[in-house]
């Protein structure tokens, strides 16, 4: 993608970082041109950069590219390389070599396969739950609530983001524990906390990532003109008809944007499962317990969420939502 | 089993002391370990000492005095698990490690740590608990590799309000018909497979398990089956002590593996611990010295210093375990109370505890007709348990 970007400057490829910065790079001198003309000697750096396109481009891209390639990509590649290495069974030392066993084991060991599929299911469930809560909330906040109520809800959604991630997980643990909030508040009504299991882990993950879905959905709904609601009503659509035929199609890009967060963050998590999932094992649990014991297997496993996210993005791309994001 | 183990231990101890040159003559197990030379005499203090340790083993309360005495500045790095310790020691950046038995043998067999010259550690003497001398995890082919620090047992903790009494057997955590199904906790590490093996050793003698750390393929498969059966009734696994404590105190867990010190921290009168009829596993910690350590004089001085009754006792009390140096128990009433609580002087108690040892391919129960499963096999097996 990066290689093609200099030739393609269209703004539709907004996800493509280098092309975006390249556009900025070319836009800048145009705006500074009259200034350099007026004060030719007072801005030597601008003049220098204006005359040398390559230097300009390099100085612009040096920092982001160092980060992207040097730290972000290289570390992942190093990890991938480890996935092909072997562990000496005698000393459990990692030694360079080449084996596909670590990748094969993901598919052949039943426990690994079921853990991968369970994690995928959990991430999808978290995403679905987030959408389910975010859409009605967004419609209420954007179109029905008083400004005061809207601000209050916006704060309520973002406030948990201020608390540490682990704090929120432990808070959920306290809510669902045997002597915890659920049993204390709802116990008299005959409702019992289910104890820690995979469902509670899904609830916890939804709690963790909900703001990332709620905020884009809310913003998108706010941008829908009120006249569309009126038009929908004029043409005989009831509330639900308006939601499904007008609102949802318009906010799909926002939902996709939010789901990229809820989905990929859930895939990589393991502390929620550890503290609120009971005996639930996620991909992250396998990586965490193997990182010291068997780094190659951990490395091979770290490719699983990446594969899932790539597949997810490809599906999202097919729907055409990524272009509209 | 107890007799066997004790005999083996005393044979090792004897051979280590008397026949250090020809220890293999005892007819006991010989392990294939890299030939690392032992230090004959010490040079000047190097001024620095880097230690990988369990949280609470290296504290200013006793390192300050050590630094004042020797000029060795102590840099401590806390590790959370045995596996992390092994990884850290293999970086070669550390001199000493407070290794539990499950890490020790891995380091010895891997050539990462060197045999110790006990003559240079005068405080390692008669007062060191018999059960911590010459054990397989830190004494190989008659050569000592570790200086004992302390030990603790993996006990069965139970909520008496729910159980209404002391469970006699570990069956409450293993069997599908356990009355506490869904409220059971287990230790989350591959070494926990040994706990399954201890249970099988008692209840299924036909499997022929002689040592829970020497399992052939069939025996490991049986242990894994038992663990899978347990997985169905597990409420939570624990690796983090705080999570375990909150789980017991919060009522989500009724029975499960625990340490005496965790029960103490939970500070809840209805929580009790017991050592069931099958016996159990336990962790025996010792200082191990890196093969590549540039600070050997400081390291030997540290091992000697922490073997003193008062320092060893301070570590044991701070961490919550039985001290290795029993002379500490007689130093004060508080010390005696601590020793009693952690069964420090009760060898009969610790005889029923199988000290954590790294499983290796060579069967440490002496069998030569089969290959045993290595720690790598256990690691892989453990991950299939939780599915």
Automatic annotation (TrEMBL), chain A:
- Where does it reside? Cell membrane
What Gene3D superfamilies does the record tag this protein with? MetI-like
Query: How the protein sits in the membrane?
Result: Multi-pass membrane protein
- What's in the keyword line of the UniProt record? Cell membrane, Membrane, Transmembrane, Transmembrane helix, Transport
Q: Which domain of life is it from?
A: Bacteria
SUPFAM superfamilies reported in the protein's UniProt record = MetI-like
Return the similarity comment: Belongs to the binding-protein-dependent transport system permease family. CysTW subfamily.
- Chain ranges passing through the membrane: 60-87, 120-140, 152-176, 196-221, 242-265, 297-315
Q: Name one GO cellular component term.
A: plasma membrane
**PROSITE patterns for this protein:** ABC_TM1
* One annotated GO biological process: transmembrane transport
Which positions fall inside the ABC transmembrane type-1 domain?
116-316
Q: Basic and acidic residues compositional bias: what residue ranges?
A: 1-11
InterPro entries documented for this protein: MetI-like, MetI-like_sf
This protein's name = Spermidine/putrescine ABC transporter permease
Question: What species is this protein from?
Answer: Pontimonas salivibrio
**What segment(s) does the record annotate as region Disordered?**
1-39
From TrEMBL, chain B:
Using the UniProt record, give the first listed, main subcellular location. periplasm
Tell me where in or outside the cell this protein is found: Periplasm
- InterPro entries on file: Sperm_putr-bd (IPR001188)
| Gene Ontology MF terms | polyamine binding
Annotated signal sequence range? 1-23
Keywords attached to this entry? Lipoprotein, Periplasm, Signal, Transport
What GO biological process terms are annotated to this protein in UniProt?
polyamine transport
Q: Which SUPFAM superfamilies match?
A: Periplasmic binding protein-like II
Q: Which residues cross the membrane?
A: none
Indicate whether Isomerase appears among the record's keywords: no
Q: Which GO terms describe its cellular component?
A: periplasmic space
Name-wise, this protein is Spermidine/putrescine ABC transporter substrate-binding lipoprotein
**What is the originating organism of this protein?**
Pontimonas salivibrio
